[in-house]
Specification:
225 residues; mainly beta; Lipocalin; 4-stranded antiparallel beta sheet; 1 helix; 56% strand
Amino acid sequence: MQSDQTVISIQYGDVDGDYNCEKVVLFGTPYSPGQSYIQQLELLIHYMDDRKLRFQLDLTGYDIHLFLGDFLKTNHSQILITGRTGGSGDYAVARLYNLENNRLKLILDEEDLSRKLTCQVGYINMNGTLGVTCPATGQTFMLESRGHLNLYAGMRQDPIQPMITAVNTIYPIQQPYENYYSLQIQQRIIGVNNADLLGLIQSVIQVTQEAPMIKSQALVKFPNT
């Protein structure tokens, strides 16, 4: 641990399948005092017999969180670290690790999720109705725009092309009938800028060793859309 590092989070769980509880500590260095942007992340796994494993992580961001849970149906916990990029997009960052033979194996990151969750949005009629298509699931959603388009000389002017952002939020969730965790993912549907929120695409992802699987996908509308 470096002198300027601070403890970000401490969690307890069986992360290697030995049926014992390990102490997992996430350290990081704030970019400046009092700021929530964390860099130089380091993970410490402390065993009951006082053995310790340390890992440097290639992850930085705001509001870094550590979570332990069984995502792979292995009857022991994987290690999930999430955060945000900040800025106008404020996208999510994530690393999901499995401890194998005293090494951290990367199972999933935000780039894997973005590649899986490639949806498109565009206008489908003269009334400003938006159509959202998600090829991975074959689903199509309809969403009414808020009138960013105006009629001029009988022609509809559409200078604002809506878009679906990269992953914005990542939450671990567990259904009542399941003994493992999934990931709930949200992507924004935006208009003129990132603050112009039209709706959300919400996906539930099952994690596997090979590739993430989409369990469900839905459109979240807001009252003024």
